[in-house]
Specification:
heterodimer; A: mainly beta; Porin; 16-stranded antiparallel beta barrel; B: 234 residues; alpha+beta; Immunoglobulin-like; 2 domains; 5-stranded mixed β-sheet; 1 helix; elongated
Amino acid sequence: MVRVLILIAAIFLAFAVRAASAAEAPDRYKLRTGIDVSYIASSGYTSWTEGLVGKLRYDDNNEGLMISRAFADYEFQLVDTLKVHAAVEAYDDDIGSTVDFTQAYVEWRPVPRSENRYRLKLGAFYPRISLENVSAGWSSPYSMSSSTINTWVAEELRTVGAELSVSRRPAMFGGAHSISLQGAVFFGNDPTGSLLAWKGWSVHDRQSRFGDELPLPPLPLIQPGMLFDDQDPYVAPFREIDGQAGYYVSGEWRFNQQLLIRVMHYDNRADPTADEDGQYAWTTKFEHIGAHAALPGDWDLLFQWMTGSTVMGSVVNGARDLDTEFDSMYLMLTRVYDRHRLSVRYDRFEVTENDQTPQDDNAEDGNAWTLAYFYDFSDKVSFGAESLSIKTDRFSWQYYGLDPTRTEKQFQLSLRLRFGN
Amino acid sequence: MRFSRLSALRLEDQISRIAARIIGLFVWMFIVTSAFGSDVDVFVVDKDGQPVADVAVYAMRPGEQNDLSAPTASAVMDQIDKQFVPHLLVVQTGTPVEFPNSDTVAHHVYSFSHPNKFLLPMYKGEQHPPVTFEHSGVVSIGCNIHDHMLGYILVVDSTTYTKTDENGKASLSLENAEDYEISIWSPRIRDVDELLSKTVVMSGNPGSEVKFHLSKKLSPPHGGQSGSMSWSEY
């Protein structure tokens, strides 16, 4: 808690600096900060954040009144066409330092000379997947905890590299339609997939920062003398291990503010036999499709589906030592009534396994319901309430003497404070 | 006899004078009506006969671009709620257009439309010197920060232009006894250009109408930032 208070002081200091410099260039800065003061009641297994298997961020030993999140999202316009964007998150847990970066990149937006608009991002940033986390600090306006897909994106995915995007409005459609294509080449993200295989899908609001070490459950296979005993008891998902670049290609189609469809093919091209400094490289590939549609009656529908695989180790009987496939989708309906917002989301998720490696069953199957409500007192202050319930069948929980079927529940009340220009 | 001839002569004289006056009256009426011109109503309807609003309508006389009087006023394209307002602005060639920014965020306004391309430095609120469009044609306006922002300026070699209202109607005030080419333009119209101009001869009859019945389906209107979605910046 003390560490978070220090952060809050730092945020106010940053504002003071901004206010001092604002007189010179009022348009060049954009600093948005937020603090969530929450009351949380959680019932489930001891959380993965504590090194066990619970799928939620909180558990019986880690609930009550707290500052659940604080962030600062900073944009600075170096010149008209060049922007620096950095975001930090502060968490009061043992996964990393109190304050660390979630994103830091430079975006070049040359003035278009034709219908084609080119944009280049360089640095560390989220790949274009989430349709939920669209606000400053990668926050979601719809709910507090992200869907299983975007929770995993927050846990293990960050592009450390370059993304080139080209977009245009096809003239024949008259300006209402816009299409774009992206290609990205990145390093890092070699251990990505470790947590998804070994812990499984989750639902929470914690974003991994660059220095974070995400705890793994006490897996039999990583204990001394076992097959993967080089593995630290944590995952550092943004490391580069084999020196091979990964890539993704994606596309997006927008029709005004009424329909957005995006697709992606991602491949981290990691060497599944490589390991370094306590981290193994996992070959992680997936396809993603997402859609956001404005429905009649002011409802919005969000949908995302991701399917892929993550493999690691050497080939035994036609499969790698760890050979898993993952799949998840969600549907969310959300609506704003004046100062109120109501969202309901249903997630389905699954991990299947192709390997026969003993003592390492990573298959799971489950679903989650999330009901979230927000009331905006003003631009700066809002109240939120969220109830979530996640039901999982996961055989490996028996390794720890736990029931393999469990419904975990969490209830959260939050006062969300947002400051910025 | 002499008297009678004289009176007959006077009668002829009087008749011709009256005739001259009547002719003169007609000429005077003609001149007066020509000087005031008359309105022509232009209607634009889509493929299904429904009125199309916000279509640019302008009239040109053959060779008019050579002897146009210089534009007297400037025009304004504002930026409100991350949209260009109006979405479509029609101006005469040589008109200075101001681009104020009424938003609380900065915009970076540009156009790549040759030969009217321009770029304003990033700004918020403060006014920049207006941009003068010296060439006729369509100028697409964008914001390099907010890619969804889209506006159009139609620059015409004419002093007579307007846009259709919600009934698809536009009234142009034209001089009589002249040939005019009346043209329409909208980013939503997909008919070939040849179908978007009509030549009319102004006869001076009140209630002249010109109707454009489009044959191709309109492309959907640009929706700007409307709707509950907030996906523009990710």
